[in-house]
TrEMBL record:
<feature type="signal peptide">
    <location>
        <begin position="1"/>
        <end position="26"/>
    </location>
</feature>
<keyword id="KW-0732">Signal</keyword>
<protein>
    <recommendedName>
        <fullName>Lipoprotein</fullName>
    </recommendedName>
</protein>
<feature type="region of interest" description="Disordered">
    <location>
        <begin position="31"/>
        <end position="53"/>
    </location>
</feature>
Amino acid sequence: MRKRNRAKVSTTLVVLLMGFSLVACGSSAPALQPSVNNTKETSPAPEQKPEERDVIEAEGILTGWADPHTVEIRVKDKAMSFQVGEDMQKLLDDIDDEDSVRFKYVEKAVDASTKQLVLTGITKIASEDGDKTGTGAGNIVTSDRAKTSELEVTVEGITEKRPVTLAQAKGYSLYIFEPMAFDAKDHELTMKIDPRYKVEIEKLPSDFNLDYLKMDAKEELSEVGEVKELTPEQLSNGPMKDARLFMMSQNGKKTQYFIVKELDGNGFIFHIDAPVGEPSEGFLPMVYASVNSIMNE
């Protein structure tokens, strides 16, 4: 009895051990087979930033804006254009055209043959003797031109020579008549008795685009009335016969002008407001004579 029972027990143990072995083999089998989707996933390589050279520092003269995102700086008599981001535009708010500046920029490669200059910092260089700009009689001027002179002007059909005084702003000078006042900081010429009669003078960069300016003029003048452009033939016998662009608009209250004149490679825009009234008879003839006397400094 005891041997038989032992045999049964032994047999049972053998069966159980064989069962465990089979189960173990069954559970380990998948580990020996490579998974169908066992491809190792790799993270994409980080995007490479465009190659940038080191920051370059330089000094020059701020010429002006070529467009809302491009400013021109003259470095050693060479005009250079720089892209300006929104953060840089704030730094330029307190810097006027023709101010001396110290600035930083980087070169970005657009393609194999083109580089883009991007402004990264700019500060105004204070002049040692301060800003010596004239606003009319009695003000200090730095130009070599005579401080007083005479200009010919035609008012109400009468042509005569009238005394004028030299005034200077950053980058240019001009002669003004006694009834006029000139604000060199704001580049604004006005009638003393009524400052609504005014001329805003804007100096352009050397690479200004006349077609773009014409679009700007249409947008600016359309707020007043229908925009008209005078042809060279229409200007040929007038005081602004050498204007590169002469556009105007008017309504019952005023006439507004957008005039572009070029002098020695530099362009100027004259934004003129001439309200309807008695002073308007002498205002425009004096304005034309004054702006035609402008010289680069």
